[in-house]
Amino acid sequence: MDWFINAESTPHKLALMAIAIVLFVVVMGAILFAVDRPKKIPGWVVTVGFLGPAVLGLGFGLVYPGLRTIWSSLFNRNGAEFVGIDNYIAAFTEEQFQVVLRNTLAWVILVPVVATLVGLVYAVLVDRTRYEYLAKTLVFLPMSISMVGAGIIWKFVYEYKPDQPNVNQTGVLNQLLVWIGLEPQQFLLGAPANTFFLIVVMIWIQAGFSMTVLSAAIKAIPDDIVEAARLDGLHGLGMFRYITIPSIRPALIVVITTIAMGTLKVFDIVRTMTGGNFDTSVVANEFYNQSFVIRNQGLGAALAVILFILVVPLVIYNVRQLRMTEEIR
Amino acid sequence: MSAPVNPVGPLVKKGDSDESTPNVSVKKLSRAEKRAIAAKGRLTSKWASFVAIVLAILWTIPTFGLLVTSFRPRADIRSSGWWTLWKDPQLTLENYSEVLFGSSTSFATVFVNSLVVTLPAVVIPISLALLASYAFAWIDFRGRNLLFVAVFALQVVPIQVTLIPLLSQYVQWGVNGSFWAIWLSHSIFALPLAIFLLHNFMKDIPPSLVEAARVDGAGHVKIFFQVLMPLLTPAIASFAIFQFLWVWNDLLVSLTFGNTNTFPLTVRIAELAGTRGSQWHLLSAGAFVSMIVPLIVFLALQRYFVRGLLAGSVKG
Predict the structure, then answer these.
(1) Of the candidates A32, A57, A85, which is a domain's last residue?
(2) Which residues of B touch A255 (CB under 8 A)?
(3) I need a labelling partner for A154 at 20 to 30 A (CA). Which of A55, A98, A269, B219 fits?
(4) B156 vs A312: CB contact, 8 Å cut-off?
């Protein structure tokens, strides 16, 4: 029964998958069957039957590990010695982490702002034009593929070949440079510009998300408001500035904060495209590096906690904003 | 993060949720009338259409370029750009056969891994979340609100915080690297969002329906399966698609808890990009092998996908 843990062949893997699903269904069915005796069984047993598995899982997989990580961020690299907040001090003062923090800041500011702007402009432009559906689908497409895939796609766009006679560029961006008479560039090697070329990838992915949400919000602006504004003589940019933007402000804020949260945790793009080398690392990537490559557990834990702390204000702002919108309605 | 959870829900009037899909327009005015109104207010409608199309093409070029490349012979990929294809159109499926069945990559088996990882990681959390959200919505018990807020708040926790302690636990149990560890982790990480979303949908079901069933003597299990489940199918579908894509596209969880035997496509392709970053005939074909399933799901179920995405975009 070794394949039950270490399934190696394809039939074993598929069988294991089927077994896992069936096993799960049987266990859940048994629990439900056991609690389905109205009046014979006290109410709390029913509650535990419905709620127990989920709560148990959350406690085991999120709450307990989270607390342990916070605890171990106060210890040294192998968890043997208590070092207080030394790991945090290191994360905020050491040269190499300064770069990481600066990069993270650039990501968290640029990606939400630019992606939202692009999405907004696009949503307004494309609204009620002829090829709306097709155009939207194309812009939205990157959202469905993995960030690893997106990283590969863009690595190919940035591909560099040395500038010699008889050597053709194979990356589309460098070919453009050559066509307009410039030298081809190593886009991913030179800091600090390389971070911005990575950020472009995330913007490329997230613009579709912001476009979709904002487009839905724009379509929900009541026709009578638009009509009244038009009778008052608002057109084009004026309409955009005084009617569209105020009407979709809540959606704008949700989009920005949501993208910011996603960007904070971005790891796949950096890892696929540069591996965090050439001064492109960000907190989420450095966490992985410290925890699983360098194996400095204390510092890795501290970076994870920093990530956690950075997300919290965004979430609180987001939730408060939504509360307000709901109250106004 | 409820809402981020469903940004459009609260922001757009309820019942308009279909508006969030790209292709639906409001039905009060006819399309022609709308276009006329819109045209008056815009710079010029023609220019807007033109710019929109140009942008859409610009957005697609990177993907298109890699797709074309994946069908070009290996030597051609090295010596010239994909845009020169029209001069000397030579296409081949060799890259795909090498990446799928070649001994160094054998993505065919890795594809199976992705599938084996993904399906249970979608079924399990949804079932658990359905039960839990039923309890939160329709069973009265002490501390219900407190517990619900706690689950809601857990959405904030970045999964990075949990990885090392979970890993050492799995090592202790001896399941480290197995599918079991990956399934369990994905299932748990999906729970807060799933419970929250499904709870919102359950709350929207009129209580009178549940009351009526209760008066008829139905127990919780019967109510759950016969009254609620049929009404929840669209919500479940949306979340299932979202979770499917999330797990299929995930890198971090599988990289941490898997091993060479269980790694899905994302991990192997990231590896390939690191070790053989210049072998574009393998990278391009490999990337599209990993993207084909999400792309099909996306194009076929865009409606549900958009809804699920709007609902779940903050996960992770």
Answers:
(1) A85
(2) 7
(3) A98
(4) yes
